[in-house]
Amino acid sequence: MGLDSIQEKLEAIETLPTLPTIAMEVNRMLMDYETPLEELTALLKNDQSIVPRILKLVNSAFFGFRSKVGSISHAIVLLGYNMVRNAIVSLTVIDSLKMKKQFEGFDVVEFWRHAAAVAVTSKHLAERARTEAREDAFTAGLLHDIGKLIQAQYFPSYFDKVWTCVRLERLPYSEAEKKARIIDHCQMGAVLARKWRLPDRLVRVVRRHHTAPLKNGGDELSTTVFLADTIVNMFMPLPASFLRREDKRRIFQSLPPALWETFRDSKHWFRDLEEDIEAACKFFISGE
Ligand SMILES: [Fe+2]
Ligand SMILES: [Fe+2]
Fold it and tell me: Structure pTM?
């Protein structure tokens, strides 16, 4: 099945998760920097359930600010439009993609644990290396693998094929996808992210998080998420997360120096993130 037919199939799936109108609306408003603050806060007030959760997220150490932000307008003033949008996107995407069903070889809780760990690590990496990607790193890390959920839920025969390959040949997931010659989770995820009109830089991360440093002009955000994913796979490995040694050498030679140095030091700082990762898991998985 080619990418076009995948796109058609995804378009036709009526049960494909949709982003709540509020998230779409917020995305549209925040795209336009002229949107008055009052208009945005008025929209959010229509959905009483989301406001306390946004505030809880922006007040968490793992996402945003350690000080107390008491209202959405205060959050926007302190953190900026972009961070508030990222908080809303993170929350609504997780809500929309919560799957109840378990699939053979696919553990949803493990999936979100990995996503939360990559989110926290991406943010830390971006801050430590002082890159431009700081504001978007958490949300980008959280969403990077959403294509796997789409594969598991809507293309189970693909998913089975890849998983069998992972198990029998001990290949990393993305290598197994290549071998099985299927549309990979990066492309599937990007189709969904575009359908949801997520900002282009997030769509790019979803599409390129396995190849960013290999491509000329690889953007900093995708490279940051790529590195965070690698770090998490080293210290909190999932069954299909091994990276071959020769790939590592090839990839890391091409990194910007600040990111490379921060990456190289990760064994010294990754353990310090445990508490934040745990808190992010609790927040996103069990809503605590
Ligand atoms: Fe991935
Ligand atoms: Fe990943």
Answer: 0.88
